[in-house]
Amino acid sequence: MSEYSDKELLTLFKNIENRNYAFNLIVRKYQQKLYWHIRKIVIKHDDADDILQNTFIKVWKGLDGFREDSKLYTWLYRIATNESLTFLKQQKTKYLLPLVDYENQLKETLVSDHQFNGDEIQLKLQKAILSLPEKQRIVFNLKYFEEMKYEEMAEVLTTSVGALKASYHHAVKKIEKYFNED
Amino acid sequence: MEDFNKYLEDIKKDKTDLFTVPEGYFDTFPTKLQEKILSERKEQNAFIRFITIAKPQLALGFMIAGFAFISITAVQFFSKHTKLPVATEVHTRIVELDASEFSEQHFIDVLLDENKKPVQEKKKNAEHYINYLVDEDIDYGTLIDEL
After folding, report:
1. Contact state of A125 with B19 under an 8 Å Cβ cutoff
2. Closest CA to A106 of A77, A126, A133
3. What does the alpha-carbon distance between residue B58 and residue B52 come to, in Å, rounded to a whole number?
4. Which of A5, A42, B119, B132 is 20 to 30 Å apart from B147, CA to CA?
């Protein structure tokens, strides 16, 4: 399964007979990566599960028109990121919550969530990450946890490399401040 | 900052160790997803089938709705923009208001109203003259002499 490259998978998908098989391979190849990316944004498993499903449904619908201007991998991350941001926006408008309150709710979920596996330092780090603005949070997660290159991040977030470097730098500074204050 | 970056690297854990997921989640996810896509497709197909079957009825319905809309708009437009000529309007008013309600009593009332007006005006004028004569201390004898 892992021997298929993205290009091979796309070629396989273009053949109508192999379409379902190729899509299944894409799902199996990327489901975990995308899940963890989404989970770190929305924190709750059920929400991450819904968003992951919606992401792959969009992929299924859009893969036919995928023009390979960008890599499949960055395209998938872009859809997952946009779906997660849309979800957060919907949650805030649904419960009429200001940004800070919703982030505080997520922090509380983190503490009470039995699915959080990290130690005290990890919990502190997650709380510090949750206090960052949404986009900065995504930049930090992609760089720190996914170890994604700035060039790839620029494709995912449709931002310049310079802006991303600055964003990551600010994020680290804010996290450092959070650690020193707490 | 440099130190903190190092610290962040030291405490770094694999992302999969941070949260747990229900057991077997990633094994069952592709099947669950395929089912969802299939059910979405079925729904979509049902909608397309409905549209295909009900095409003539829908077309007729849209035609009737369109015709009704155009008719209502046209009626509203013409009733707004078509004014009756002035002469006709006046004539209609006379017929509707005056002629239909014409009676002898109505005629008498109008005449009485007309007579009332000068009387009131005259009274006002008389008061004015009397006040003037009083203020200027002009007596009746002087007035007779002057006239």
Report:
1. no
2. A126
3. 10
4. B119
Span A34-73, pLDDT tens digits: 999 999 999 889 999 999 999 999 999 999 888 777 789 8
Of B15, B17, B33, the CB nearest to A53: B33
Considering only CA atoms, which of A39, A16, A153 is closest in space to residue B17? A39
Within the 3-42 window of chain B, which residues sit less than 8 Å (CB to CB) from chain A? 4-5, 8, 11-13, 15-22, 25-26, 29-30, 32-34, 36-37, 40
Q: Which domains does chain A have, with CATH numbers?
A: 1-99 (1.10.1740.10), 118-182 (1.10.10.10)
What's the pTM value of the predicted model, to 2 decimals?
0.66
What span, in angstroms and rounded, lies between the C-alpha atoms of A6 and A2? 10
The tokens describing A111, both together, are 């503490």
Report which of A90, A18, A19 is spatially closest to residue A54, judged by C-alpha positions: A90
CA distances from B140 to A117, B83, B109, B135, B143 (A): 120, 64, 39, 14, 5
Q: What is the pLDDT along chain A (182 residues), one digit of tens a residue?
A: 557 898 899 989 988 888 999 999 999 999 999 999 999 999 889 999 999 999 999 999 999 888 777 789 899 999 999 999 999 888 888 766 666 677 777 777 777 767 787 788 888 899 899 999 989 999 999 999 999 999 999 999 999 999 999 999 999 999 999 988 86
Beta-carbon contacts of residue A144 (< 8 Å; ≥ 6 apart)? B8, B12
A90/A96 Cα distance (integer angstroms): 9
Residues 6+ apart with CB under 8 A from A36: A145, B15, B16, B19
**Helix, strand, or coil (residue A84):** helix
ipTM score of complex: 0.82
